[in-house]
Amino acid sequence: MNETVISKRQQHIINLLLIRSYGRADIATWFRKTYPISKITLIRDLNDLIEKEWILVTGTGRAVKYQLNEKNRMFLPISLGDYFSEKSNIRQFAGESFKETVFKRLYKLFSAGEMQSLSEKLNKLSQKKAVLDPNIYQKEIERITIDFAWKSSRIEGNTYTLLETEQLIINKKEAEGRNKEEAIMILNHKDALNYVLNNSGIFRNLSIEIILKIHSILIKDLGVSENIRSQPVAITGTNYLPPKNNKLLNEYLSELLEVINNEIYPVSKALIAVCLISYLQPFIDGNKRTGRILANSILIANDIIPISFRNVDELEYKKALILFYEQNIISAFKRIFTDQLIFSNSNYFRI
C-alpha cells in the first residue's frame, strides 16, 4: 500500500485505535482532554481515514464504532516518537505473543511506484565490478564490510568505534580495553559477509540449512548454541515473547522461508527476512545479526549493493523492530530499511 500523509490529529486517532475500537463520542471525549477539536473537524478526520483505508466503521447510529483496518495494519503510519512516548499508554495494550497471521500479511510491501523509484536508485554489483579496477572494487567491498560489521555489531551493544573496527579487520589489531568477544563478533560479521559474497548463488532461495550456516558463522567462538532453540528467550525493551516450543519454531521457520522464497521483488524478500527472523527469534542469540546478513545475502544474490546500515540511528532501528514485534506494523522499519538501502547504493562504488 502507498504511504499517505496524515495530520497530527489523525495520527492521534490511529494511536487511540491501536488500543481497541471506539465510538465517535468516546473519541471526542478523549480529544477534549488531550487535543481539543470541533465535532465537524473530528468527523472530517474520521471520514478521511476511512477513505484512505486506515480505519473501518461498523454499526449505525449510537452503535457506530471505529476500528483499525486490519488489512492495512502493516502500513499504518505510526510515529515512533508517539508510540514510545512516556506520556503514551499505547504499549500497555501491545501484543506480547507471536502472531501467525503475520505470514499472510507480508505481501505487496512496495507499490509499483515505490519499486520504480527504488530501481532508479539501485546499482548492480556486476556492473560496478565490470567498470572498476579490480583493486578499487575490492577496496569498496572492504569498505562496506567494515561499515556493516561495525554498525551491525553496534546495534547489538558492541563498543568498538568505526576506526577500531577498521584496524581490527584490516590489520587484525584488537582495540585496547575492549572485550575479546567484541572483536570476535566483528570478525564473524566479516566472515559471514565474505561467505555470502563467495557463494551468492545459493541465496536465491533460502533454506533452513542456509540460515543455520549463516548463524553458525556469526556466533562462532561466542559460546552460543548453533541449533534452533528449545528454551524461551526474552527481548530487552519489550514484553513481547517469541514462541517457546521447538517444534513450533521449526514449523514457523518453514513458513517464514515459504513467504520469503515466494516473494518475487528482491527488496521485499530482504525486508521480510530481516523482520521475520528478528520477530521469530529461532536462536538463543544472534537472531537480528542473522536477519541482517540474510537480507544482504538476498540483495547480493540479486546483484544489488548490500546495506551497511552505517548511518542508521541504533535506537530508532530497535524501536522500529519493537513496533513490528508488538503491533505487526512494518512501516517504520520499512522506511529505515529503504533509506539505508538508498544510502548504500549512493555511497559505495561511486568511483
UniProtKB/TrEMBL annotation:
Positions that bind ATP: D285, G286, N287, K288, R289, T290, G291, R292
Glycosylation sites: N198
GO MF entry, a single one: ATP binding
Coiled coil as UniProt keyword: no
Organism domain of life: Bacteria
Keyword Disulfide bond: no
Residues the record marks as site: Important for autoinhibition of adenylyltransferase activity: E156
Entry keywords, A to Z: ATP-binding, Nucleotide-binding
InterPro entries given in the database record: Fido, Fido-like_dom_sf, Fido_containing, WH_DNA-bd_sf
Domain Fido: 206-339
Entry protein name: Fido domain-containing protein
Organism: Candidatus Gottesmanbacteria bacterium RBG_16_37_8
